[in-house]
Amino acid sequence: MVQEVDVRTFAAAHADGALVIDVREPFEYAAGHVPGARLVPLSTVPRAVRDLPGDRAVYVICASGNRSLTAASWLSQMGFDARSVAGGTTGWAQAGFPVVHGTRENAA
Known about the structure:
By secondary structure, this protein is α/β, with parallel strands linked by helices. It has a single domain (3-94), classed as Rhodanese-like domain (Oxidized Rhodanese, domain 1, 3-Layer(aba) Sandwich), CATH 3.40.250. Helices cover 35% and strands 16% of the residues. Strands 1-5-4-2-3 form a 5-stranded parallel sheet. It starts with a strand and ends in a 14-residue tail after the last helix.
């Protein structure tokens, strides 16, 4: 079973340097994403696993939590400690956490 975390729990992990992948489409990511989140569209997750470290938790985020739950499930089945962020980027922004715009992970 995939672990689902709320936005506040995710925020604490993020502050500690958590690995975050955003599984939305590039246009969604550019419109606003969690600082440091790596863009890995849902359709590319199975191919992207070779670039993910297997020794730490991977936090998966999307817009609301549906696609991230799917991706986290796939990653969990492949042996990763994957955690889906409930509420997604929408919940993150609504809670007042920073959002980065553009195509870079930490764009200004």
